[in-house]
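Reminder: ligand-aware prediction takes two inputs, not one.
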Amino acid sequence: MAFDDLRSFLSALEERGDLVRVRDPLSPVLEIPELLRQVMLRRGPAVLIENVAGYQGWRVAGNLFGSMDRIKLALGVDRFEEIGERMVSMFWKPPPTSLGEKLSSLREALDIGKFTPKKVRKADFTDNVVEGDKVDLNSLPAFKTWPGDGGRYITFGQVYVRDPATGVTNIGVYRVMIRSSREAVIHWQLHKRGRLAYLEASRRREPLPVAIVIGAEPAAMIAGVMPVPYPMDKLLFAGFLAGRGVSVYKLPSEILVPSSAEVVVEGYVEPGREADEGPFGDHWGYYDKPIHKFPVMTVERIWMRRDPIFVGTIVGKPVLEDAYLGKAVERVFLPILRTVLPEIVDINLPEYGVFQGLMIVSIRKSYPGHAKKVMMALWGLGQTSLTKIIIVVDEDVNVHDINQVIWAVSANVDPQRDVVVIPGTHTDHLDPATPIPGYGSKLGIDATRKFPEEYGMKEWPEEVKPDPEVTSKVARILDRLGLGGGNGSVGSRRAKGEGEG
Ligand SMILES: Cc1cc2nc3c(=O)[nH]c(=O)nc-3n(C[C@H](O)[C@H](O)[C@H](O)COP(=O)(O)O)c2cc1C
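Here is what comes back for the chain with flavin mononucleotide:
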């Protein structure tokens, strides 16, 4: 069951003993962020800070999604793959032939309606609205995380825009720097959908209405970090995540936002109006440099529920909350990725690889050059294209067991044949290793066993395997001696993702 708002999610967490209340007075400048970071590093519970120094009447929630179990609870699933499979099963299957099949596929088509947003006329956040000159972004308990950050940031706001070309709603989690009482700078990176909408508005020389939602029903919050293919509507996608349509309220700017929102910051960006953003200590663990210009949002209104709850997160060296969200993305999208690359068995974006840093992918290899074909495809697809290093292994290697991957890389790779470096490519805008943001290179490692065509027309060496009868006999003896259990050898375990446990 998905939750209708943030508060019911917090209550459920508390009931399970997965929420801690902090009553000590703490400032959103450095103190709350450091507390949240320490809790995240300890793989601790969600946190509700009830005494926000300097911000009477506010509470701050954090580390809401800092464990796989909490994200599963938020989305009401046992396995994240269920969500991707739910979507794929609607669209990718053989065409119906019998009358019964046709009727059932018609029923399924109508079922899509249950995931679409549901408009309502009343939302609790309309209880309090501050407009025009009265707006003061500094009244929000936004965080300064690191001592060298250039200002205070909304770190877990969902930025809503309507794409001027398609009319679809986009939801993206992008950091937002408070610049003055009525201005904020939105960190829309080069390759993200939010920036696409901004570029389209700029082409049309029109201002782009923007709404930043802070705290809402969990599925809508999580939808903001999902790399949903353009132009699928992200509110519709949030409905797929929740298993039912999101209840939405139409703002004066016509943007649809969840009626469950705690806070909504509404305004617009004007084409070409950009300002310095940063420095900001980001998820790579560095302050990103050089300072770049990003679009400036002018705020017209701030709406909020009574006793509002602000939500923030922390980024920095792993493992923090974003690591778990990244894992959820990996699992939700695996079935969807397989629709374009059916040879993919499993993927792992290791938490310490910071998502865009490293992807390990296992494939059902069926022709020479297959591993490199998969690399090229991934480097050409949406946000997987931002991945710096891709390692491809055979299907019997468990990508989640780093030692199995190290074995495959060590045993199967001849560097001059199997390592690909592509210079002059696009990269993650924040990658600290490239001097020009967004422009660098790629590394691919083909750690699969080689076909004769890839191996000087020779057969790949036969792998050692013990005699099965002898193994069984020895296993029985070892069991009797209390030394039973798995053999622990590489390739002995089936690939198993986080969501399958
Ligand atoms: C905590 C957190 C902060 C993020 N900050 C940014 C950011 O500042 N800029 C950005 O472009 N993406 C950021 N992302 C990644 C985007 O949320 C992610 O790429 C998402 O798919 C963007 O949505 P879009 O594909 O609709 O543009 C952040 C993700 C998380 C979890």
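The radius of gyration is 25 Å. The chain has two domains: 6-311, 341-462. We will return to this case in the review session.
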